[in-house]
Amino acid sequence: MKEFTHLDLLEITEKEQELKMLLSEEEKEFSPKQSTVNFILDYSKALSIRKSKSIDYIEMLLN
C-alpha cells in the first residue's frame, strides 16, 4: 500500500479543483439557446399523433 505525504494530498486536491472548474465551464458551453427550446416546445404542442385502426399511427402537424 502506497503512503501519501501531506504534499501529495495537496497536489491531488489542487488537481481535483482544476478538474471541477473545467467541468463546470463545459456544462455552461452545452446549454441550448432559448430560441431552440422555444422551437421544440412549439413543435411538441402542434404535433398530434393518433392511433388508427387501419394503420398504426397518424401523425399530424396542427398549424
Helix content: 55-70%
Q: How many structurally independent domains? A: 2
In angstroms, what is the radius of gyration? 26 Å
Number of helices: 2
Oligomer: single chain
Given as residue ranges, the uncertain stretches (5+ residues, pLDDT < 50) are none
Structure description:
This protein has helices at 6-29, 34-46, and strands at residues 47-51, 57-61. The protein is α+β, with helices and mostly antiparallel strands and 63 residues long. The chain has 2 domains: 1-31; 33-63, no CATH class. The protein has a two-stranded antiparallel sheet. The longest helix is centred in the first third of the chain and has 24 residues, at 6-29.
Structure described in brief:
The protein has 63 residues and is α+β, with helices and mostly antiparallel strands. It has 2 helices and 2 strands.
Which keywords apply here?
alpha+beta; 63 residues; 2 helices
Layout of strands and helices, then pairs:
Elements lengths: L5 H24 L4 H13 E5 L5 E5 L2
Antiparallel strand pairs: 1-2
